[in-house]
Amino acid sequence: MNKEKFEKGLEIRRSVLGAEYVDQSIQNATDFNRPMQELVTEYCWGEIWAREGLPKKTRSMLNLAMLTALNRPHELKLHVRGAVNNGLSKDDIQEVFLQAAIYCGVPAAIDSFRSAKEVFDEMDKE
């Protein structure tokens, strides 16, 4: 493991997804899933998210569209919150899901709208 990339990835991951969530994921890692936590932190966050080619806001938009296409509601909810942390408005997120509806399918986009609403409702209570 590249310690420098891991630490940079941890910093970015915390800033996007929230320190509490990330720290809990790392602390709750077991011998079985710890390698996955390390892989995600080092490569996803420390290698790709750390690149300067795209701003975090754009990366969040891409993630929302791809997670809609892949129909991954758990990860989508996590990244809706991250998208808000990266400066996307509800209107921005709505536009991403409408665009995804055309290219990924209406049922996938409906599920994404539903998941995002749950996140927005939770955030309104905080």
How would you spell out the order of helices and strands? Answer: HHHHHHH
Largest β sheet strand count, sense and barrel closure: none
CATH architecture of the largest domain: Up-down Bundle
Strand content: under 5%
Mean pLDDT: 97
Task: Estimate nothing, just give the exact number of structural domains.
Answer: 2
Show unreliable segments. Answer: none
Number of strands: 0
* CATH level-3 fold name of the largest domain: AhpD-like
Q: Tell me the distance between the termini.
A: 36 Å
Q: Please work out how many helical segments DSSP would assign.
A: 7
Structural class: mainly alpha
What is the overall shape?
globular
CATH class of the largest domain: Mainly Alpha
For the CA atoms, what is the radius of gyration? 15 Å
Helical content, roughly? over 70%
What is the CATH homologous superfamily assignment of the largest domain? AhpD-like
Domain Carboxymuconolactone decarboxylase-like: 36-118
InterPro entries: 4CMD/NDH-1_regulator, AhpD-like, CMD-like, Decarb_PcaC
GO molecular function: peroxiredoxin activity
Protein name: 4-carboxymuconolactone decarboxylase
Would you kindly provide a written description of the structure presented here, covering whatever features stand out?
It is globular, with a radius of gyration of 15 Å. The relative contact order is 0.12. It has two domains: 3-48, no CATH class; 56-125, AhpD-like (Up-down Bundle). The protein has helices at residues 3-17, 19-27, 34-48, 56-70, 73-85, 90-104, 106-125. It has 126 residues and is mainly α. α5 packs across α7. It contains seven helices and no strands. This is 4-carboxymuconolactone decarboxylase. It holds the Pfam family CMD. Residues 36-118 form the Carboxymuconolactone decarboxylase-like domain. One of its GO terms (molecular function) is peroxiredoxin activity.
